[in-house]
Amino acid sequence: MPSTLLNDTFLRALQRQPTDYTPIWLMRQAGRYLPEYNATRSRAGSFLGLATNPDYATEVTLQPLDRFPLDAAILFSDILTIPDAMGLGLNFVQGEGPRFERTVRTEEDVAKLAVPAIDATLGYVTDAVSQIRRALTDAQGRQKVPLIGFSGSPWTLACYMVEGGGSPDHHTVKAMAYTRPDLMHRILDINAQAVTAYLNAQVEAGAQAVMIFDTWGGALADGAYQRFSLEYIAKVVAGLKREHDGVKVPVITFTKGGGLWLEQIASIGVDAVGLDWTVNLGQAREKVGGKVALQGNIDPTVLFASPAVIRTEARAVLDSFGNHPGHVFNLGHGISQFTHPENVAELVDEVHRHSRAIRLKN
User: Fold this and answer.
1) Quick check: is 232 catalytic?
2) Tens of pLDDT along 48-94?
3) Which of 16, 41, 133, 311 is catalytic?
4) Catalytic, out of 8, 71, 78, 214
5) Is the pLDDT of residue 1 over 50?
6) pTM of the entire structure?
7) In whole angstroms, how far apart are CA 52 and each of 66, 186, 196, 247, 267?
8) Which of 14, 91, 154, 273 could cross-link to 191 by cystine, CB 3.0-4.6 Å?
9) Is 41 a catalytic residue?
10) Which of 8, 12, 16, 28 is catalytic?
11) CB distance 50 to 57 below 8 Å
């Protein structure tokens, strides 16, 4: 799928190359805070109806790009597509979030697990990737911005598979990790194989960067994190296609609550590490040096403040990182559904404006 990127700032930042300004995209940038997203979801009938239909997924992926001058698009999907493809029966319950019809808790449950055939079970995702790439590209082959593909991490997927849905304390999955580590490692190994195959299929379909969301890695204790989360993220990274059609495909990983392990995460071969809002960005840059790019990390709640405060906080993040290559501006986690789109516009504008000013000063 040859194309010429009109804006490759995001990809160059991931590779720590100089850029004219700091690129920005937002976790959950296509979501419920946008009225146009809610209208499309209503037409789709449900979240799954939206996520499993390439036409709808393409439509909502492009919506934030039509509103804001963001520097990357991210595939609209869900991190739980893989467990659903394994036959666990994903549903979204109003007011409760994702739930699985079947959990993975016993030896028999674990024995039934297998890596799904991506083409047969998740073809709607790769079809959406290809369709989004086409939609981002004009008749002359000029592509507006790069497209990011993604997956949940092996541990984060296991949390939902064992718990059966979201959990306030991850009691069941953590208990399994300590009492039956053999079962836990078997689940994680299968998940790692599945995530690797899934991300590689997205790359083949047209994703130009991929991200691994380790949403629940921070729920683990030091030591347990390395055994049950980071080890398996590293296995995924080692198996990924890092080049497609002669072009490098950068890899980002994000562990919410993972600031304690920043240097270890940076050492597993990724191109960039995402940071939540609890991490001092300048200190993080000093710790990793030139090893990886960093992504983040303004508190999403800042977007409920006044435009003046939003701009002040954006400048603080940019000033903390300084005039160095290798920064992608993002939230420290996903955008809230209650955020006003006008406030997102303020943030994007200030990131572009102030980062250009920083470059000119030096």
Assistant:
1) no
2) 999 999 999 999 999 999 999 999 999 999 999 999 999 999 988 77
3) 41
4) 78
5) no
6) 0.96
7) 22, 28, 20, 28, 35
8) 154
9) yes
10) 28
11) yes
The answer to whether 160 is a known catalytic residue is yes
301 is in an annotated binding site: no
Instruction: Enumerate residues 6+ apart whose C-beta is below 8 A from 215.
Output: 79, 152, 153, 156, 256
Mean pLDDT (whole number) for 35-45: 96
**30 annotated as a binding-site residue:** yes
311 is catalytic: no
> Is 12 one of the annotated binding-site residues?
no
Is 203 in contact with 210 (CB distance < 8 Å)?
yes
Longest CA pairwise span in the chain (Å):
63
Mean pLDDT of 122-129: 98
CA distance 261 to 252: 15
Q: Tell me the pairing of strands 147-152 and 142-143.
A: unpaired
Is pLDDT at 2 greater than 70 in this prediction? no
Name which of 258, 105, 89, 256 is nearest 173 in CA terms.
105
The domains of the chain are located at: 4-275
pLDDT on residue 93: 75
Give Cα 318 to chain centroid, integer Å: 21
Token pair of 157, please?
A: 């997927």
Task: Identify the CATH number of the domain defined by range 4-275.
Answer: 3.20.20.210
Write down the residue that tokens 């296991």 correspond to. 158
Q: Which residue has the tokens 């299929």?
A: 201
Distances (CA, A) of 263 to 266, 280, 288: 5, 14, 6
For tokens 């959950």, the residue is 28
Please name the residue that has the structure tokens 């007011």: 95
- 32 in active site: yes
